[in-house]
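Hi support team,

I'm filing this because I wasn't sure whether my run with 3-hydroxy-3-methylglutaryl-coenzyme A finished correctly. The job status page said complete, but I'd like someone to confirm that the output block is well-formed before I use it downstream. Pasting the exact inputs I used:
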Amino acid sequence: MTATMNLPTRVKIIDVGPRDGLQNEKQPVPAAAKIELVHRLQDAGLKEIEVTSYVSPKWVPQMADNAEVMAGIQRQPGVRFSVLTPNLKGFEAALAGQPDEIVVFGAASEAFSQKNINCSIAESIERFAPVVEAARAQGIAVRGAMSCTVGCPYEGDIAPEKVAYLAGLMKGIGVQRVDVADTIGVGTPRKVRAAIEAALRHYGIDDISGHFHDTYGQALANTLAALELGVWNFQSSVAGLGGCPYAKGATGNVATEDVVFMLRGMGIDTGIDLDKLIDAGVFISQQLGREPNSRVSKAVRLKRAG
Ligand code: HMG
Ligand code: MG
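And here is everything the job wrote out:
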């Protein structure tokens, strides 16, 4: 049996551009532009959108308009909206926006946990536990982002055992599904596979998503490696927006346009209209005063220009 026998027939993409993408922008982006981006993403057929985060505005000023953005979205039925909540304070603030899913975010690396959320891995789990409990009691789904699952800007290579350890802790507090994130994009297919296999010790394949930053141009290859393991949930950013403010040098997530093009070419359904997606990417890139960071976007637009 070849590895391709495992390939899923459909893939669900969470566009994290409004959150992971924009959080790293130094220039202020008006809430109205963020709302318009979310609307364009749902018009393009995205069924899951990570909209914003309820974190300290001193740490991430760009997300300070979280309430305004959530309140301004006209939701289409069947679309899920998620937000990041690092602690109970964030969760309580998030409730007014009625998120479908909240995301607690931890790291497989101690040093990154300290830099990103100012506490150890063990302390982060203590903070997340009441958040998860409160969310689930209210019928809100809970996802756990796991940063630095292959490499860390401070600790270097991360052993799969650390990913398994974190996944086990997340499972223990009731997190329903997890993201295997390559925060700084240093992963290559075998390493990413090992990280996913580590997460698989605690979560089923349906409850694991791939979240690959494209800093070193490896994200599509890593996506294929994950697909071959049967992973069918992925996170990406329209126009390749983004980076993490606490991972110096890390560029954006893999562009949603590039993932959709690859999957379409492989006969794997995403339900996403590539042309509308490209236009959404152009819209937000114009707001930021630059070109979309997506090869597919560029190629399609050149072709359109004839
Ligand atoms: P802390 O300083 O340890 O928290 O920060 P604290 O409880 O000691 O509170 C300090 C101050 O923050 C207080 O305000 C709190 O009220 C306030 P002050 O009295 O000084 O005026 N505060 C909050 N304000 C708003 N919302 C909150 C909140 N909590 C406390 N929820 C904290 C801890 C987690 C808040 C802080 O470290 C933080 O905000 N970090 C930002 C982390 C972040 O957003 N990182 C980027 C997202 S993660 C990511 O991008 C990776 C991912 O994409 C996956 C991948 O690629 O790896 C998900
Ligand atoms: Mg990220």
